[in-house]
Write a structure and sequence with these properties.
The protein has a single domain, classed as Up-down Bundle (Ferritin). The protein has 6 helices and no strands.
C-alpha cells in the first residue's frame, strides 16, 4: 500500500470515528437513564481518542501499544454508584443502543477490511488495534442493552464478552 493510499484509508477511519463520537454525544443528550448516558459519553470520548491515535500514526508520532478502551471499568464504576432499580426502571433510548451496536459492527467490518488489505505488518497491526477497540465498544453496548431489556440470550454469550458483575 502506498503512503498516499494509507493516508486516504486513515482519513476514512478518522471520518468514521468523528461520526461515531458525534452520534454518541447526540444519543447521550436524548437519554435519561444514567447508565446508558454514561456509556454513550464514554464511547464518544473513546472515539475521539481513536482519532488521536490515528492522527499520531499518520504523523509518525509513535507505535500503537496502549489499549485506550476503558469502557467496561468506567461503566462498572458508574453502575456501582447507581441503584439497580433506578437503572433498570428507565430503559430508555433502546433504539439508540441498537443503532450504536450497528455502528460498531460497521466499524469492525471496515477495519477488518482495511486490515485484510494492508500490505505491511505495521499496517495490519494498526487496523487490528482498531478492530479490537470497536469490538470492546460493541461488547459494552450489548451488555448494557441486554441488561436493560432482560434478554436471556445475554447469558449464553462468551464469558469474555458478558459482564457478569452487571447482574
Amino acid at each position: 500500500m502506498t503512503e498516499k493510499e494509507l493516508s486516504l484509508l486513515q482519513k476514512q477511519a478518522i471520518k468514521f470515528e468523528k461520526h461515531g463520537s458525534i452520534m454518541y454525544l447526540e444519543f447521550a443528550e436524548q437519554t435519561a437513564n444514567p447508565l446508558v448516558r454514561r456509556l454513550f459519553y464514554q464511547l464518544a470520548l473513546e472515539e475521539i481518542q481513536h482519532i488521536q491515535v490515528i492522527e499520531d500514526k499518520t504523523e509518525g508520532i509513535g507505535e500503537i501499544s496502549v489499549d485506550v478502551s476503558h469502557v467496561e471499568q468506567n461503566i462498572k464504576d458508574a453502575f456501582s454508584r447507581l441503584t439497580k432499580d433506578g437503572v433498570k426502571s428507565d430503559a430508555d433510548n433502546v433504539e439508540g443502543l441498537e443503532k450504536a451496536m450497528q455502528l460498531e459492527r460497521e466499524g469492525i467490518q471496515l477495519y477488518e477490511g482495511l486490515r485484510d488489505n494492508a500490505k505491511t505488518e505495521a499496517e495490519k497491526k494498526f487496523f487490528q488495534f482498531l478492530v479490537d477497540q470497536e469490538a470492546k465498544h460493541l461488547a459494552a453496548l450489548q451488555n448494557v442493552y441486554h441488561y436493560l431489556t432482560n434478554n436471556s440470550d445475554w447469558f449464553h454469550g462468551s464469558e469474555t464478552e458478558v459482564w457478569n458483575w452487571l447482574v
